């Protein structure tokens, strides 16, 4: 008989997700906390939003927190989002993408201080 340890994230009495390790479970729980905070904030500032819409937007903001932080810092879309938009465009050919990659300058690495 094998013994398995499972970590279950529970919210409002409902199982949300099961993980094999504590680190992933804690990360998911933290993301859900952030989504709840965004949802509450959205409902306070946009009361005309429905509860389901506020929850969906809160979850999206929490899931995409790195992109949101980048936009807040730089007022620009992160490169990953730009690449996804280019890949989603049906009229973009492989030749066009290759030309764009060849013409793109090398990116500089920038250090950021932790708060």
3D architecture notes:
By secondary structure, this protein is mostly helical. Helices cover 58% and strands 10% of the residues. The protein has five helices and two strands. It has helices at 22-45, 51-63, 65-74, 79-88, 94-103, and strands at residues 7-11, 14-19. A two-stranded antiparallel ribbon has the order 1-2. Strand 1 (7-11) and strand 2 form a beta hairpin. Helix 1 (22-45) crosses helix 2 (51-63).
Looking at the structure, what is the overall shape?
extended
Largest sheet: 2 strands, antiparallel
Strand content: 5-15%
* Alpha-beta classification: mainly alpha
The helicity comes to 55-70%
Distance between the termini: 48 Å
> What's the average pLDDT?
79
Q: What's the β-strand tally?
A: 2
Give unreliable regions as ranges.
92-105
Number of helices: 5
How are strands sequenced across the largest beta sheet? 1-2
Rg over CA atoms, rounded to whole Å, is 20 Å
Order of helices and strands: EEHHHHH
């Amino acid at each position: 008989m094998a013994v398995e340890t499972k970590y279950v994230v529970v919210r409002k009495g409902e199982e949300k997700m099961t993980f094999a390790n504590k680190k992933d479970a804690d990360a998911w729980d933290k993301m859900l906390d952030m989504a709840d905070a965004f949802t509450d904030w959205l409902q306070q500032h946009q009361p005309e939003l429905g509860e389901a819409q506020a929850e969906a937007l809160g979850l999206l903001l929490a899931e995409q927190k790195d992109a949101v932080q980048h936009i807040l810092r730089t007022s620009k879309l992160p490169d990953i989002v730009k690449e996804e938009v280019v890949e989603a465009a049906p009229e973009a050919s492989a030749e066009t993408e290759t030309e764009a990659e060849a013409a793109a300058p090398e990116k500089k690495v920038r250090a950021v201080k932790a708060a």
